[in-house]
Amino acid sequence: MQTLLRGGRVIDPAGGFDGTADVLVAEGKVAAVGTALTPPPGAKLIDATGLVVGPGFVDLHSHVHSVAGHRLQALDGVTTALDLEAGLMPVERAYAEAAAAGRPLHFGFSASWGGARAQVLAGITPDARIASSLAVLGNPRWQRSSSPRELAAWLSLLEGELAAGALGIGVLMGYAPTTEPAEFRAVARLAAKAGAPTFTHVRELVEMDPATPVDGSTEIATAAAETGAAMHHCHVNSTSGRHVDRVLHTLEESRQAGSRVTVEAYPYGAGSTAVGAAFIDPERLRLKGLGPSSVIMVETGERIADAARLEQLRAQDPGAPCLLEFLDEDDPRDLALLRQALAFPDAVVASDAMPVFWPDGSHDSTRWPLPPGGTTHPRTAGTFAKTLRLMVRETGAWTWLDAFRRCSFLPARILDDVAPAARAKGHLAVGADADLVVLDPAAVTDTATYADPTRPSRGVRHLYVSGVPVVSDGALQTEALPGRPLRGAVV
Which intervals hold domain Amidohydrolase (predicted)? Predict the structure, then answer.
């Protein structure tokens, strides 16, 4: 079916266009952009007057591998949701299972550094499931440094995953923070040789752990400079905390010197991970200026009372999801730090969206509205709408053109070399993929909270994935599963 979006405020961040226009969608592509376009016979006509029409958001950092999670992200304006920080392994199975189940949004995965190391160093066979991945994060057996033989073995696994279609290499360095720095440089060399980016959760900063083998943000800047690899710094807000000014300065110096370092951020003061993660250790929390009470268990809502209780939970179920409060969003100084990370030149928005869990242990639901009792991080449902509220509507720090550049155009460009199909995403011109969001600029906002994290965002009036409506007139189309894989094409 052809669709004509008439009279909207059209934003094309690639060409710098911001003006009133019509957009014709046909056969999954943008067929025409102009004024007073004549609708083809049988085309569906959508009145977009007063609405903003732009390329759908490309989320480089989403851990939702389910219909339920994708639906929440669709109502947040996302059309492509990729798990690139952690990745899944084996990547062929991850792609096959997502395609077989159907997805509302486009999907894709990186090669999992953690999964490859777990297989070689601990004999843990990855099974491409997010629940299994969370459990592995808290397992100390894979977190040590590698022998030369082991290093070669897991690098070979990563190389095989890239050949199988992975969108780069996801490196969870923060979960194995004492490993030999030479191993990270070896990953960067592999990525540079393959023409694939890395996506790194950096290890601890020197301010937070003076005993760290190398400062996390300095490490990624140095590795990018030495190898020429394209290296993406994940959630710079959460790994930097109150040291974000110094970290951003380090990264900017590296970029000015020619390093290919990119940065992402999200607008929340609490992160989410497995309670067994290395940086949830009571002593490491102390070094960050935090404590056990900064940790909240996702599924029960328990705020940890003391170090003994935290150690108990880490021992009995290291994969249990938790929240970690690293900044106080009600403190103007901390809120300014979050905004500073988002405002960093060319920083992209990425959600770090987490799976939705229900009391019965299930991690997915095809019901809509979602069943009550679901728990997750509010960033799953609200990252992009909250960012637009903070940076465009409330502060005017960004124009709408800036917003679509950071939410759509720049994220897609990070993938251009590894996935040529990405070149049709993130912009709005003839021939581009018809992955479009149509939103109400005066109403777009997040509604998800830490207490009620599955409340969908408001203000997305229409969302098209390959030209198929996933959201129409603000209502989710539950039968729509048009998502397709975005795969790497490493030669």
Answer: 45-471
